[in-house]
Amino acid sequence: MATILAAIDEGGANTLLGDALASIPTLSKSGSGSLGPFTAGYSVQGTFAGGTVDLIAPSTVRIEHLRFNWQMTLSFGIDLDDFLPHFCLPQVCVDIPCVGHVCTPKICVSWPTIGVSVPFGDFVEATADFGIDVSLSGGQWKVQILVQNLSQLQFGPATAGILVLIGAAITPLLLAIPFIGPFLAVAVDLILAAIGVAGLTGFLGPILSPFLSGLKIPVYQQDKHFKFLPASGPVDPDVFIELDAVSAQIQHSDEDELVLSVDISP
Amino acid sequence: MSLTGTSEVFASIDEDALNDILQAFFNARPHYRRYGSPAFVPVTTVSETAIPAIAFPGIPGGIDWRISFTTPVVDLFEQTQPLPPGMTLKPGQFSLHTDVELCVNCIARKDTRSDAAGARASRTKPRPDHVVCTKLGVFGIGHLDVWNSPNGDGAVRLRVDSVELVDIQPDSLETVLECVIKMILDGILSRIELPLKALRAGAFELIVTEGPEIEHNHIQAFGNV
Amino acid sequence: MNASTDLFDSRALRYIDCYGQRFMREGTYRYHVLSRQEQGLASREPCTIKVGPRKGEGKNGSKMSQHTVQLRWKKGRFSSGSDELEIEVGDIVLWNCPDPAAPPYEIVGDQEFFASARMVNECGFTHAFGTPGSYAWADAHGSKLGGVVHVKEVSCASRDDLAQWQQRLSKAALVMIADGKVQPPEIEIVAGQTVYFAIVTCKGMSITDKRLLGKSGGAGRGGHAANCA
Questions:
Q1: Cβ of B2 and A9 within 8 Å?
Q2: Computed over its alpha carbons, how large is the radius of gyration of chain A?
Q3: What is the pLDDT along chain A (266 residues), one digit of tens a residue?
């Protein structure tokens, strides 16, 4: 068997996979989801960073503290009628000299629906177990690691502060609404309570989790018809060899290594 | 014992794969193993390399000759291929075996002033119509000539240190031919650089800290990402 | 305090405004309720107020009774529920459309004294101020009449605070306009309270938020440089 072998230990794998994660372009997604009682639209984008690699024989690559840094713009409408008490201006009477007693009718206020748009960002971390996938497609060998198991997402410290940001975004919108002054604090508290931290993480989790669970990290990618030497003149054409088979596994001896084996032929 | 040892990355190519690469090279660029003077090879092509005739006074156009080799088969230490008596493969060395064909255009010239045809013949283009050839089996011992740079570039060449022809008499003729063929074979192989990245089929990044060296029928190298 | 978007204009009545007009002579008075889009398109049958003789004391022993007309906004037009209203001399009719979705509107009568956009005698305009700020107002028809309404912020930390505030809302502030004077020219209320601008005598004015009038403060419709003496 004509074989080329390449092996990388955990230290090297940390660097290799770290570089691979950093080279993944910004991912983005938009859609809508339930944020407490609201239907919120979102636009999110993010990049991967960090992580500590643990190679586990025979074929698991574990990345602990795999981090996804994300930025999101959240948009949702709040029908204030759902949060504020029914409010009416009472009948108002004046005594006009030489005229008499004049009264306005009771006038009920209809609270509007306000649109809120809040930008914010944070990170999530998880431990991901990747399996090794080797494939030949379109004349190209590809070895990549794919997420097979993902731990529960751990949110960064800024996530808990998102409710405060939402409150800060809502407040100036509410201030512009006539007659809301006495109800302002109540309105903000009720709205934030309706969302809640659980509602927020419950909203963010299903949005962010697919970024991590769908992660594929390339490890090796070469044409089966492999150009060993490029042409260097009219009488020196390209030199090719055939990569007939590629395999990858984690081998354990006195340390764990990712070993790539390539069988070639002329 | 791990493959990488104290390094982060390990890469190796076994001797069968190295021979496949050499075969691919010489299949794509056969002119590296076929050489001929103008009577045999008027101009260099992918198939053959043009070399000058052997100039000699009194021989107009010189002595036309041709030399070609079969694709060498390499054996990396530890020895797995037979060698002739007197040759041993030591650690860090490779052996090679090839067949060489040496041909000469042995023109018979009339050396008389009245020979108009002979005079005309000396002015026209030489033709290989009096070719005599011999084939010899060649064994060689050599070492790796390597270079690598901090950015991960590098290459390997095969350098021939000694050559053995079997059963040529007298011994002095054997010695002369061995020297000529050694120089020619080393000249050929020294022009062939095998990139380190291609030798590991493009796998990983490797900043070499140790090697490439011959070990256990492999060329192997150690380094970091 | 910053002024807010709480604009007011007697020429363009909204759900938190009322227009009141007292009828001092017998007769039949026709009027339309027009949104801004309908200016000049009063092709429909007008509403009618029939003013008959005073038959006795009004309600509560007063010389005047109030009739409140609640307007509805439906299918692009205003309606009053009944096209004919019978009142007695000296009674006041108060119009209000409580629908927040209705566009700004005006009451356009068939006589000069009878118009919310240009108020003359024995009429009034009310506006409930919902947002804290200082609101300067002026006459869009060019007179020098004007004033300021200071609206104080309210925060209610408890149910009692809320109850006290709602109690206060039932009291309006009164601004009297007569003989070319505004009394008082500056008033202070809390957010949610109503101001009643009572016009006793005038040759035609509006109560208009000064921010709607530009820098000149008097470029209103009609250009009537009236002296409301």
A1: yes
A2: 30
A3: 789 999 999 999 999 999 999 999 999 999 998 888 888 899 999 999 989 999 999 999 999 999 999 999 999 999 998 888 899 999 999 998 888 899 999 999 989 899 999 999 999 999 999 999 999 999 999 999 999 999 999 999 988 888 899 999 999 999 889 999 888 888 888 898 888 877 888 889 999 999 999 999 999 999 999 999 999 999 999 999 999 999 999 999 999 999 999 999 99
Q: Per the structure block, which two tokens stand in for B124?
A: 């026209």
Strand ranges inside chain A, DSSP E? 3-9, 27-35, 38-49, 52-56, 60-79, 87-89, 93-96, 100-103, 107-109, 113-137, 140-150, 154-155, 216-223, 225-229, 239-252, 256-265
Chain C neighbors of A88, CB-CB under 8 A: none
Cβ atoms of A170 and A162 within 8 Å: the answer is: no
Task: Give the N- to C-terminal CA distance of chain A in Å, as an integer.
Answer: 12
Q: Sort out which chain C residues have CB atoms less than 8 A from A97's CB and list them.
A: 176
**Residue A58, preceding peptide bond in cis (omega within 30° of 0):** yes
Q: What is the DSSP letter of A156?
A: -
Residue A19, min C-alpha distance to chain C (Å):
53
DSSP C166-185: HHHHTB-EEEEEETTEEESS
User: What's the CA gap between A9 and A259, in Å, rounded?
Assistant: 9
Backbone angles phi, psi at A173, to 5 degrees: -70, -40
> Given the DSSP bridges, would you call strands A140-150 and B54-56 parallel, antiparallel or unpaired?
unpaired
C176/A101 Cβ within 8 A = no
Decide if A105 and C70 are in contact by the 8 Å CB cutoff. Answer: yes
For chain C, the straight-line distance linking the first and the last C-alpha, in angstroms and rounded, comes to: 34
Return the structure tokens found at B64.
Answer: 């036309």
Whether B45 sits inside 8 A of A264 (CB atoms) is no
Cα distance between residue A72 and residue C46, in whole Å? 56
* Contact flag A8-B23 (C-beta cutoff 8 Å): no
* Interatomic CA distance for residues B161 and B140, integer angstroms: 7
Between positions 119 and 138 of C, the ones with CB within 8 A of A are 122, 124, 126, 128-132
Q: How confident is the model over B39-81, as pLDDT tens digits? A: 999 999 999 999 999 999 988 889 999 999 999 999 999 999 9
User: CB–CB of A266 and B205 under 8 A?
Assistant: no
ipTM summary value: 0.89
CA distance A206 to chain C (A): 38
Q: Please, is A64 exposed, middle or buried when counting C-beta atoms within 10 Å of its C-beta (0-12, 13-18, 19+)?
A: middle
CA–CA dist A12, C189 (Å, integer)? 74
- Token pair in block for residue B93: 């060395």
| Sign of the C-alpha dihedral computed for residues B124, B125, B130 and B133 taken in this order | positive
CA distance B112 to B114: 5
Q: Residue A65 CA to chain centroid, in angstroms?
A: 15
Cα dist. B146→A137, B192, C79 in Å? 35, 12, 99
Neighbours of chain C (3+ CB pairs under 8 A): A
